[in-house]
TrEMBL record:
Keywords: 4Fe-4S, Iron, Iron-sulfur, Isoprene biosynthesis, Metal-binding, Oxidoreductase. The gene is ispH. Binds 1 [4Fe-4S] cluster per subunit. Signal peptide: none annotated. The keyword Repressor does not apply. Transmembrane segments: none annotated. The active site is at E132. Pfam families: LYTB (PF02401). HAMAP family: IspH. This is 4-hydroxy-3-methylbut-2-enyl diphosphate reductase. InterPro entries: LytB/IspH. [4Fe-4S] cluster binds at C18, C102, C201. The lineage of its organism: Bacteria, Pseudomonadati, Pseudomonadota, Alphaproteobacteria, Rhodospirillales. PANTHER family: 4-HYDROXY-3-METHYLBUT-2-ENYL DIPHOSPHATE REDUCTASE. Catalyzes the conversion of 1-hydroxy-2-methyl-2-(E)-butenyl 4-diphosphate (HMBPP) into a mixture of isopentenyl diphosphate (IPP) and dimethylallyl diphosphate (DMAPP). Acts in the terminal step of the DOXP/MEP pathway for isoprenoid precursor biosynthesis.
Length: 315
């Protein structure tokens, strides 16, 4: 008879890779096949060390800026998007580039451009310093966009022409936090123009709703994801808000602090949009070493979104 305690694991579905991440990783893999190693990638292709390390082992070289890319080799732009100055710099050096920007991030870029063409000043709801925010702000001339990070920012904002505003958002934000910020902006600036369609992407939305479902039933939740992954950090916050105080972000099974799981009988597991399923399986295996595990899945919806590859790689 086993002296292990029983542990019920609830897997949130959807979890893990989204269509934009799948596409970005496939772009690097197919570029390595087409061009041969090395293929250069500006910034982490997605925010996940396991993914980046695997692609590096296959021959991808990750660099911070184009200055580190030698002439005559292809370069890939990460899924988070880049300022317009980056492809312009690549073109000026006649570098072949492949743009792995998530199409849903590109949609935000086009929305911002459309508002700018209409003469609007744009408010970008997002997190300062995140690559997606840097990329979105870099679509337009300096001063065209104001970053709004918090409800306080929305309350304190002063603008020259309150009748001539529009907003866009980062795609990986907390739905609840963003809704509060938007509510403040719409109450202060009733004429503000809204996105034609929600900017927060389907994958962020689904993963947050799915973690809410498991949070009400779990004693603790592990979110698989990287510390610099915006959508993964939001999942931890959402789970805590739903009442599961013992919700933590971990990169790998080896990072779990098992003492924090003492006394639990039900563990929820989910994964950010850039975390591969193999890392979830690794955590379940680690749990099996310590507990008698049963696994069930709670499904919010099944995703079937796919995105086309850039024309250079379309087979």
């Amino acid at each position: 008879m086993s002296d292990k305690a029983d542990l019920r694991i609830i897997l949130a579905n959807p979890r893990g890779f989204c269509a934009g991440v799948d596409r970005a990783i496939e772009i690097v893999e197919k570029a390595l096949v087409k061009y041969g190693a090395p293929v250069y990638v500006r910034h982490e292709i997605v925010h996940n060390k396991f993914v980046v390390d695997r692609l590096r082992d296959m021959g991808a070289v990750f660099v911070d800026e184009l200055d580190s890319v030698p002439d005559g080799v292809p370069v890939i732009f990460s899924a988070h998007g880049v300022p317009k100055s980056v492809p312009e710099a690549a073109e000026s050096r006649q570098l072949e580039y492949l743009d792995a920007t998530c199409p849903l991030v590109s949609k935000v870029h086009r929305g911002a451009e459309r508002h700018h063409a209409d003469g609007k000043h744009i408010l970008l709801i997002g997190h300062a310093g995140h690559p997606e925010v840097i990329g979105t702000m870099g679509q337009l001339p300096p001063g065209s966009m104001t970053l709004i990070e918090t409800e306080q920012d929305a309350e304190n904002l002063q603008v020259e022409n309150p009748e001539n505003l529009a907003f866009v958002t980062q795609t990986t934000l907390s739905l609840d936090d963003t809704a509060k910020i938007i509510s403040i902006l719409q109450s202060r600036f009733p004429a503000i123009e809204v996105p034609k369609k929600e900017d927060i992407c389907y994958a962020t939305t689904n993963r947050q709703h799915a973690v809410k479902l498991i949070a009400t039933d779990a004693d603790a939740i592990l979110v698989l994801g990287a510390p610099n992954s915006s959508n993964s950090n939001r999942l931890v916050e959402v789970a805590k808000r739903e009442g599961c105080d013992r919700s933590v972000l971990v990169e790998r099974a080896k990072d779990i602090d098992w003492s924090k799981l003492d006394g639990i009988s039900t563990l929820g597991i989910t994964a950010g949009a850039s975390a591969p399923e193999i890392l979830v399986e690794e955590v379940i295996d680690a749990c099996r070493e310590r507990y008698n595990v049963t696994v069930e899945t709670l499904t919010l919806t099944n995703e079937n979104v796919t995105f086309k590859l850039p024309r250079q790689l379309a087979s």
